[in-house]
Batch of 4 targets.
Target 1
Amino acid sequence: MSDAAMKLVVVGAAGRMGQTLIRLIHSIEGATLHAAVERAGSPFIGRDAGEIAGLGPTGIIIGDDPLQAFLHAEGVLDFTSPAATAEFSGLAAQARIVHVIGTTGCSADNDARIAAAARHARIVKSGNMSLGVNLLSVLAGQAARALDPIDWDIEILEMHHKHKVDAPSGTALLLGEAAAKGRGIDLASKSVRVRDGHTGAREAGTIGFATLRGGSVIGEHSVLFAGEGEIVTLSHSAADRSIFARGAIKAALWARDKKPGLYSMLDVLGLSSQ
Ligand code: NAD
């Protein structure tokens, strides 16, 4: 592995996470900003990425050609949209560079393209890149394993800012997957995503989701285990987007010398066997 700083491309450079990543890369030893990319037609094309992020000029000008940006890079940090991410996974695999995917709301089709790209590329994908949420998912899995599904109902509650476009959040789904795995059930067939009107009584063994949207909330998640006469709540509050950006950069550095494959943040953080 090279000792030189890892050359990273930020796609979605003018977005909330893109700007946070650009600010943070500068403060992390071992990582350097190589290029910044936005969607074609974005008003930020041609602007200095550092200026957009509030850092001052960096000399890295935001472009709209990912192929060109990936050419001499070693990794791409991607918090964009599902369609863009599926496209980038093919390009990153072609360029043989690390692809860190934070984008949420991917369809089964998007995920299939990402999995195909992972045959040639090192991809780290997670609905939440923070250490805290990944630890929370391990704890939720352990609690789900320990508590009888007939006596304990699992509900996942999340709140995000009003601009978020997908629901439930990638993190809520990640926590649901962890709880389902702990119980040895399949989340897709056991989850209740919406309740409205005369729903009837709660079906034992299901995992419910509730979504709140409003204001500037960065991310609030709770996993509730509701029993007869008592509730156990495991929760996480994100106070700053830098927790996700720091995790994403850590993931890129971790994947630098790994074999091609699709990895999660649990692998990066050494929590996958918990
Ligand atoms: P945002 O809308 O502020 O930013 C997305 C940016 O991507 C925009 O600037 C948009 O122009 C750009 N973009 C879209 N298509 C593009 C393309 N083809 N090429 C280049 N740029 C493109 O959104 P955000 O709040 O930064 O979130 C982005 C994604 O990251 C969402 O899916 C969100 O849920 C997810 N997210 C994940 C984590 C995590 O830890 N995994 C944390 C926060 C947000």
Target 2
Amino acid sequence: MKNSRGQDSNSSPKPSIHNSSISYDPAVKTDESLLPTQFGKKRKHSNGKRLQLGQSNSKHVAGTNFADCSEVLPEVKPFDMCLSGSRSSATSTGCLNEKWNEMGHIVEGTEQRILRPGMVLLKRYITLSEQVEIVKKCRVLGLGQGGFYQPGYQDGAKLRLQMMCLGLNWDPETRKYKEQRVFDGSKAPAIPHEFSLLVKRAIQDAHALIKKEYKVSNVEDILPSMSPNICIVNFYTTHGRLGHHQDRDESRESLLKGLPVVSLSVGDSAEFLYGDQRNVDKAEKVLLESGDVLIFGGKSRHIFHSVASIIPKSAPRALYEETSLRPGRVNLTFRQF
Ligand code: SIN
Ligand code: MN
């Protein structure tokens, strides 16, 4: 049965954890074909036994010396965002010849909206060639050490997505950021410089919009700047979703200052819900499409938000052609710890 938002009414998001209180729906089945083989029913951890810090499970990476810990550590089956036969490792991007940093400013056809104080949506902000680069980089990082896995909670329930962290690892079980992943000892790959530049540019353009709309001199009071040192990359299949939650696991200082979360969306569109209240039925809805950037900081830093659904076949065709991206959506959220 569906509720008014088209969600299964018996599985409406329950506020709980995530990068803060991501709720989840243990009753809902995940896309089995995408699950690492070791994912079973209830277990202590989504990927098996937790490691002591200092241990490392290097089995994740092809071509490395495997640590001799096969009895205790499960293998994390790599998740490939792109379908086999992917062209994403090819150097050519066909007719897409723009480069990173060339755009500098908002492109034609973009649309900018202040959704609420401190919350800005930059529609179609990321160019197609930048989206292609994002997919290619995330694919490679996602297949390497510290790459994608399907996170779970203490009770064994899984998030309905694949996740990888850059900069620092976020642990959904403890809701803490750590250098090393608890279950395999991997360090988070570094945030690619191009990603950080894109975030910086988006904040600058959001500032320009706020200045124009509010006629204020100090935009930092409304939307503070930030330099990301954390990025959580989520891949949602078309069945993916994320329950209503707040992002509140960053440092106290970062949260008090309202340093923004900058979210980039690539691939299929998502119905994104947001609002002041924990109750998802009171949330507002906005469509996040491929290339959109959503920023929430200042007074909007603590909004509840969720991904209600992914809209199949809504990604730009050229993105599939260039990358063979699986049906689904990639979302990158940047934060400053
Ligand atoms: C998140 O809240 O962590 C991700 C949101 C999104 O996928 O848009
Ligand atoms: Mn969030």
Target 3
Amino acid sequence: MYISLRIFRCRLLSYSLNNIMAVRQSSDMAQFKAVLKSAKQVVILSGAGISAESGIPTFRGAGGYWRKYQAASLATPGAFKTSPSLVWEFYHYRREAAAKAVPNAGHIAIADFENKHGSEKNVTVITQNVDGLHARAGTKNLIELHGNLYKTRCTKCKEVLVNTDSPICEALANRGAPDANVVGSDIPVKDLPHCKKSGCNGLLRPHIVWFGESLEPAILSNAEAVMSTCDVCLVVGTSSVVYPAAMFAPQAAARGAIVAEFNLEPTPATPDFHYYFQGTCGTTLPEALAD
Ligand code: BJW
Ligand code: ZN
């Protein structure tokens, strides 16, 4: 309720600002680069679109299916309760796919920007992605809002561990094929990944924030803190429909930060922003972030 009210207030504020003094939108790259050059605190907020050019499907749109399931419908506590086997197959498939993927020009441009300007600017990447590609590209100041494919959490003792095993357990070897004709999943729960802590043996789950679950409070407050002080924000490859991340950049724009969006297509938040650069972010970001 509290979050919904905040979102409503934020939308109302940004709607009012847009109507009082209509944010004039530009696609002038040279002008944006000049703004970025003088920025002191820069946030890059990324979503699935930045990993699309590494071959990782986005959530919404044509690629957002695994078998006959919409990816977002498997990313719920209810789906895991109903069929932990099916959900583990989905995550096993994505762990294996992300491990084979390599960071693309967009991830690398961001990491190079931090590396080059990190001493004169405060540069933070806030990502909704769980694939680990920002870190593999070399980004250091990174906030992973929705968790990470290579972390597990015990459903019993709640211990969180990094786990890069491939496969994560024997029963998942050769499972997870995305073929739409494969129906159901029948791995017995006892054969799915389990906690190795002495005396626990709880079922492990991916350490990922599913729909209806709260983000980790410390991670959320870190993200909110940098969003509330940045002077420039780049919103990259996200549909800006999933909260709370969807309200970060419109809120920053409403308090006066300069926000630039990089996306293949406009999103519901596009009218809130000062700059919009249409295209693949593997092309637009290297241009925006180069000296
Ligand atoms: C390119 C490109 C290229 C392609 N170059 N661009 C207020 C109102 C209504 C609902 C809610 C609300 N507050 C909370 C909710 C509920 C819910 C929510 O937001 N629902 C909405 C769908 C309405 N949020 C939550 O449940 C969150 N929890 C929470 O707020 O707790 C408190 C609470 C709960 C309930 C009620 C009230 C309060 C948790 C959200 C967790 C999100 N989890 C997922 C799954 C992670 C697991 C996994 O990866 O397996 O995170 S959902 C999925 O969406 C994933 C993504 O991180 C997230 C965002 O998607 P993203 O990154 O934007 O991807 P796409 O596919 O949507 O967009 C890709 C974009 O890229 C497109 O725009 C393309 O055009 C573009 N693109 N190629 C540039 N080459
Ligand atoms: Zn445990």
Target 4
Amino acid sequence: MKLKHVIQAAQFERSWLEEEFFPEVRGMEGVVEKGGADILYGKHMITFFYEPSTRTRCSFEIAMSMLGGKVVFSTENARQFSSVAKGETIEDTIRVLCRYRPDVIVLRTDEEGMAQRAAQVSSVPIINAGDGAGEHPTQALLDLYTIQKEIGRIAGISIAMVGDLAKGRTVRSLSFLLAKFPDVKIYFVSPENLRMRDDVKNHLAEHGVWFKEEGDLREVAPKVDVVYQTRTQRERGSLVERMQALKGSYIVDKDILSLMRKNAIIMHPLPRNEEISPEVDDDPRAAYFRQAENGLYVRMALLKMLLT
Ligand code: CP
């Protein structure tokens, strides 16, 4: 499978993930260890972000630099610091950026579907770095790699996705990717008003993936290999007060740790707010900072596979 654009998690095949992508990612861990390479020398990347980012933009830019390429333009507030502020459409913006000869555009938007619209008019690869409440496929790739590395397998795992499942894009993309592996069990743990959307649940049902909606993490924590915690998406109108009122059922703290299996892990796409208590950070099962590091290796591998 030759990559063109990276738009949605469902586009990847299991065989490609396991036989081509993961070995490439592991290779990138070695490249970083050695201080970099010049595989992408002469290649140019634009990172065009409509929403704030630390991990995604920074790790993509460092990934490009580690491989000898250049970041030629970068903004993380396109609505203010680009001609989007003057009303330019995503289609026109991409058409013009392509004329300046980048080799790849990494795009984060604040509306679902914009990455797909960008890809339709782009002459260079578009990487969806998050499109509103839609998808975050490169996050899902690094999440999957983290599960493989930490647990040693993906097939047959049980995972609890916790928190704001209605507006969080990382849990959507991860669900689409996990649906490619056999015998995966997914518990969606959230208050009633923040349930996973129907398109994901319908996709899982169509692909025979076991899932269950639950309302209390204390019930689910002892049953899973992975607790995948998420942040309340305030910027998309989710009410944090609602989560705080239900704190006991959704916050990962020492009590939840005491219920978890000894070899289970806690993941979080980060940034976190109150949903993981800092007292958990020193426990070896807290995998979220290792998970963020994997983002560098995963994005290096993706850039190499797209551009060479
Ligand atoms: N996980 C993630 O997408 O983080 P950033 O918003 O910092 O990029």
